[in-house]
Design brief:
The protein is an alpha+beta fold. It contains 10 helices and 4 strands. It has a 4-stranded mixed beta sheet with strand order 2-1-3-4, with helices on both faces.
Length: 212
């Protein structure tokens, strides 16, 4: 089998990316030879996009939280704190600050750091019901992942991280990705949605073998 590279398109605010990230961690354990690269996808770049989709940001939160119930059923560990989220008073976060935070982590220490910060932010949001658009909370998650906070901040506050996110949003368009989670195997084999682990593994192996 040829070398397999998986581009894992995800968004921190994506409820279905939460269980998918866990399953991709299992994929990495079963297939350590596979290279997993994280790619940005923005479900909602701004408050205006929430208004366009749902009428208001408040309505967006009310609707989106109902999606958590399905995501929680899919999640292998059933980690979502849905009742807790309903009691929060902060608006539903937009995509760009958390995505930029993850990309700054990548610039600090590579894909492993991106993944660690991504998972930390998702846990903070879906389990601990914290506002991951708040830069203080973002910084706490980064620090908890063991990254050099000052180095990370230098990347987060630079144009480089934002430009990297924007480049990946354009890449998603070129792949015609319209929703996440989505895996692109070796640049040509898209796998969409949260699939069972055995199916993910089978599809990855089939994609790799077709290019031998």
């Amino acid at each position: 089998m040829n070398k397999i590279t998986i581009e894992f398109f995800n968004d921190v605010i994506c409820s279905f990316c939460f269980p998918m990230s866990y399953r991709m961690r299992q994929v990495q354990k079963v297939m350590p030879e596979v290279e997993i690269r994280h790619r940005s996808f923005a479900l909602a770049r701004s408050e205006e996009e929430y208004k366009a989709m749902f009428g208001s940001r408040a309505a967006a939160k009310e609707e989106i939280v109902t999606h958590w119930e399905q995501a929680n059923r899919i999640d292998d560990l059933h980690r979502f704190n849905i009742d807790g989220m309903k009691k929060t008073d902060f608006p539903f976060p937009t995509s760009m600050k958390p995505l930029r935070a993850c990309k700054a982590a990548f610039l600090t220490a590579g894909d492993d750091a991106y993944w660690d910060v991504f998972d930390a932010l998702q846990k903070a949001f879906f389990v601990d019901n914290r506002n991951i658009e708040d830069e203080e909370i973002i910084g706490e998650c980064v620090k908890d992942c063991g990254l050099d906070l000052e180095v990370w901040k230098s990347h987060y506050n630079s144009d480089v991280a934002l430009e990297a996110v924007e480049k990946e949003l354009e890449l998603a368009k070129s792949y015609e990705i319209r929703s996440v989670p989505c895996l692109v195997v070796n640049g040509t084999h898209p796998i969409s949605g949260v699939l069972p682990l055995d199916q993910i593994l089978r599809m990855i192996r089939e994609a790799g073998s077709t290019q031998e």
